[in-house]
Each structure stands twice: as structure tokens, then as C-alpha cells.
Write a structure and sequence with these properties.
mainly alpha, elongated
């Protein structure tokens, strides 16, 4: 839950980097909450109102951690937007989530 709340704290931070662990722990908890809310909505209310409300409420933090993760694997500038639009179009293909599995690029250090 620590990673989940860490991403929510940085809900609109698009700068910086996100590790694989930060992204995947957020993704795991987020997905489990969505599943629980979908089941609860279906059983109690017969619709998906709470599920949709939660999903829309966490959309910005999800996009932000996605962008930070892409930056961590080496994508910069307009490439981020192109990959984001690609991920919206082809999310069911698994390609965008597959990118999240790549190793982080080393942080450039300044010597001298």
C-alpha cells in the first residue's frame, strides 16, 4: 500500500522517474481495488457507478506514473506523448504494459 499512496501523493507529477516496483505495485493495488469495486457495485447497486467514479478519480495519477515510468526507461519529450496515445489505442495488446517491464536506464551523473 505504501507504493500506492506514494503515487497518489504525486498525482500530478509528470517530471522525474518511477521505478518498476513503484509502477507495478501501484498497478497491482489499483487493479485489485477496481475488481473489488466492480464486484461490490454489481452485487449491491446493480451498476458500475462507484467503479467508474474511482477509475476516473485515479486516472491522472495513473497517467502520471505511466509517464514517469516511461521517462525512467529512457523515453523523453514528444516520444512520451506518442507512446501515451499508442497505449490508449492499443492497451488491450499488452504492449504498453510490456514497456513497463523494461529495466531502468542509469541516472546520468556529472563528474568533476
Amino acid at each position: 500500500m505504501k507504493w500506492y499512496f506514494e503515487v497518489l501523493k504525486k498525482y500530478a507529477v509528470f517530471k522525474g522517474r518511477a521505478s518498476r516496483k513503484e509502477f507495478w505495485m501501484f498497478f497491482l493495488v489499483h487493479s485489485l481495488i477496481q475488481i473489488a469495486l466492480a464486484i461490490l457495485d454489481a452485487i449491491v447497486f446493480g451498476n458500475l457507478f462507484i467503479f467508474v467514479f474511482y477509475t476516473l478519480g485515479t486516472l491522472l495519477p495513473y497517467i502520471a506514473v505511466f509517464f514517469r515510468r516511461l521517462r525512467d526507461i529512457g523515453y523523453k519529450g514528444w516520444t512520451l506523448w506518442i507512446l501515451f496515445l499508442f497505449s490508449l489505442a492499443f492497451m488491450s495488446s499488452g504492449v504498453p504494459l510490456g514497456l513497463m517491464l523494461l529495466k531502468s536506464e542509469p541516472i546520468a551523473t556529472c563528474s568533476g
